[in-house]
Amino acid sequence: MISRLVVVVALAAYASAQKEDFKCPDDYGFYPHPVSCDKYWKCDNGLAELKTCGNGLAFDDTDPKYLKENCDYLHNVDCGDRSQLEPPIGTPNCPRLYG
User: Fold this and answer.
1) Is-contact 70 86, C-beta < 8 A?
2) Signal peptide span per the entry (predicted)?
């Protein structure tokens, strides 16, 4: 019983730490993750939620007002320093699900 409680507390602490890594600059918007090109932060009423684009897609952060939730093909997005990506999930004809 105690080991389950420890696991639950550890998971809750991890989830809390993940949310606290990013502070929403505005109440609403979509903001790029600092190192992962296929991840972004969704802010809703000032609460940040980490989101991931589909496999083979990247978050397009070109909207200067950060109001568009836009995942696009990797070849269409300039990732800049955001070089990390989720591992590819390949198909017989493509290295990633979406390209």
Assistant:
1) no
2) 1-17
Helix and strand numbers, DSSP H then E, in the chain: 1, 5
Mean pLDDT of 8-32: 68
| pLDDT tens for each residue of 37-66 | 999 999 999 999 999 999 999 999 999 999
Lay out the sheet containing 29-32: strands in order across: 29-32, 39-44, 47-52
State the Cα angle at 35 between 10 and 62, rounded to 5°: 130
- The helix or strand, by DSSP H or E, that contains position 51, with its residue range, turns out to be strand 47-52
Give yes or no for a contact between 36 and 50, defined as CB atoms under 8 angstroms apart: no
